[in-house]
Design a protein that fits this description.
- Keywords: Membrane, Transmembrane, Transmembrane helix.
- This protein is about 100% helix and about 0% strand.
- The protein is mainly α.
- The longest helix has about 90 residues.
- The radius of gyration is 40 Å and the shape is rod-shaped.
């Protein structure tokens, strides 16, 4: 009878030890996953900020291209006018 009681007590202790080990493993796994999630979240924030910076740079380049285009049109008009005046001067000579 005592041998059976010791066997039952050892079995119950083994079950509790196993449950403790499994719960500890799951806690550690959960902590690792939350740490990984935090790293991924941080990297996503960094990428998002980079995308926002690129978007602002593209808008700025678009404005610069628009300004350059307007200046080019003015230069072309001025050149056309100058050529027209040179043609008139050549005809007068």
């Amino acid at each position: 009878m005592i041998d059976v009681s010791i066997g039952i007590i050892c079995s119950i202790a083994g079950v509790f030890a196993t449950l403790y080990t499994v719960s500890r493993y799951f806690r550690q796994d959960t902590q690792k996953e939350s740490g990984d999630f935090t790293r991924v979240e941080t990297k996503l924030d960094y990428v998002s900020k980079g995308v926002d910076d690129i978007r602002l740079d593209i808008k700025d380049q678009g404005r610069q291209i628009k300004d350059i285009t307007e200046r080019l049109v003015k230069v072309e008009e001025s050149t056309k006018s100058a050529h027209h005046r040179l043609d008139i001067l050549e005809k007068e000579e």
